[in-house]
Write a structure and sequence with these properties.
With 209 residues, this protein is an alpha/beta fold. It contains 8 helices and 7 strands. The chain has a single domain, classed as Vaccinia Virus protein VP39 (Rossmann fold, 3-Layer(aba) Sandwich), CATH 3.40.50. It has a 7-stranded mixed beta sheet, with helices on both faces.
């Protein structure tokens, strides 16, 4: 691993909020880890035992160049190969909406991990609503920067949708954060306000019982 240490200023604010939810020395699986920015930060600053799954060869190569333990694969299929309770924490950042079955993915996250940290773009945000209402077209924003015909997003999930899904799957929400366009935490405790104003939802979840 190279000696260049990541500072908090070097990574996205929303990734720092994820890192804050993970204690030092934990075992962590980062699902859809991209170029390894979060995983690298966790390994260096929190001394976690971190591993990752990434579907793109370019992302895997960047991770390996950083000295990270990352495999190339399809997360929805390959996560099933891990034993129960193999990790303390499993991270799924900005990827839930691209899964074929988000419900089954959440169940898999909490099968292989004791806790999971999940973030996703909030399609209930007022900008998305106003774009649909006034323009009559699917929005393209800094966080949803694909046209409708090329987007990897399969399931357009709102914060309210996610909360209701957790209730249906009997999943415990231990912590929830509403994230602004700049990646900062918004001062909302209300589900209604979070669903309307947040650009992203960020949740720490676990199994009940």
């Amino acid at each position: 691993m190279n000696n260049n240490s990541l500072r908090p200023a070097d990574i996205r604010v929303d990734l720092l909020l994820i890192a804050d939810m993970i204690p030092e020395g934990a075992t962590v699986l980062d699902v859809g880890c991209g170029d390894g920015m979060l995983l690298d930060y966790l390994v260096r600053t929190k001394k976690v035992d971190g591993r990752g799954i990434e579907i793109s060869a370019e992302g895997v190569n960047r991770c390996i160049a950083k000295g990270l333990s990352v495999i190339q694969g399809d997360a929805e299929k390959d996560i099933r190969d891990y034993p129960d309770d193999f990790f303390d924490y499993v991270v799924l950042s900005q990827t839930l909406q691209a899964m074929n079955r988000p419900d089954q993915m959440l169940q898999q996250l909490l099968r292989v991990g004791r806790k999971a940290v999940v973030s996703f773009p909030n399609f209930g945000n007022w900008r998305v609503r106003s774009n649909l209402f006034f323009a009559g077209t699917m929005p393209v924003t800094s966080h949803l920067d694909y046209s409708w015909y090329e987007t990897p997003n399969i399931h357009f999930c709102t914060i309210r949708d996610f909360v209701y899904l957790c209730q249906e799957l009997d999943i415990k929400i231990e912590k929830s954060l509403a994230i602004s366009q700049r990646g900062n935490q918004l001062p909302f405790n209300s589900l209604w306000m979070s669903n309307l104003w947040a650009q992203q939802g960020l949740y720490l979840i676990s199994r009940k019982g």
